[in-house]
Amino acid sequence: MKTQIRIFNVLLLLLLSLSLFNCNKDTETQFVIQVDSIRVADTVVVDANLRIDFFGTIGPNGCYSFSHDETDFVQTTISIKLWGKNSGESDCPDVVVKLDGLYMDVNFNSSGTYTIQIVQPDNTKLLKTVIVTDPV
Hints:
This protein has one helix spanning about 1-25, and strands at about 30, 35-40, 45, 50-55, 55-60, 65-75, 75-85, 95-100, 105, 110-120, 125-135. It is of the alpha+beta class. The protein is elongated, with a radius of gyration of 24 Å.
């Protein structure tokens, strides 16, 4: 009987220790990045890559980083939402993390006027018009 009580107490102690360890675990969060501006050509030829350069701040310290993008093509509009993540760690490098240098290549298979819209955290949109022409 004493052996069973000791085993129970040891298991209870291990279970409690595991739950306390998990309570202190860092929690990663994701968020939509505020894009301050983009750099993109005004015109591009069909089937040529259009490079979109993004500028803005991902986060105030080294625990922030770029996560992924969501891109939707609907008729002549390309909607782009950039996602960042915060590792949730308590001890982070003292550096501002920027988007500068992040880019995306887009390819068009027909000519026309296209709108690039960057979706912001408050659901407003940063807009840019691009004209796609047929090859000469």
